[in-house]
Sequence to fold (184 residues):
Amino acid sequence: MYQEIIDNIKPELDKTITYIATEFAKIRTGQASPALISDIVVDVFGEKMVLKQLAAITTPEPRQLLVDPWDKSYLEAIEKALHASSLGTSPIVDKGVIRITLPEMTQEYRTQLMRIVSEKAEEGKKTLRRWREEAWNEIQDKTRGGKIREDDKFKGKEELQKVLDEYTTKIDELVTKKTNEITL
Fold:
């Protein structure tokens, strides 16, 4: 019975890992990545759309992004949105495409990025703990209701902790990978 409760929270734990990985992809490293700008909101003809719906985003060089709008009438709106973003660069319009060259990262900026990575990781771990608490409360409620035996309750607690440790390790691995990308 407790295994069913644990299995029910696993999809939520997977969503948390996916969310953290997506958030980490948006954090700039020494390499250019389309994920840095793909979710920037662009106001096109009074409608808000994300950049990836309006243009192809490629990385022709390690520190350069190239934005090629599907429709050239989007060019001005995309440029304006990129200027307003917190990327810290100046997009350059060049023959119907926009080039963004990322500057070298300073040590101060790397430290700031490391802090953001830590904060996002902690946010993910808090979410994992919240799901563990919810599952544990459900196990205890079913034990009080007679649906789970007392010794199964403690087996459930151990199994729940094993699952949480496994997902916490996944977050730690993501943090290590992103930290390595930032420090390179």
In short: The chain has two domains: 2-25+106-183, 34-101. The beta strands are 41-44, 47-50, 55-61, 64-69, 92-94, 97-101. The longest strand covers residues 55-61.
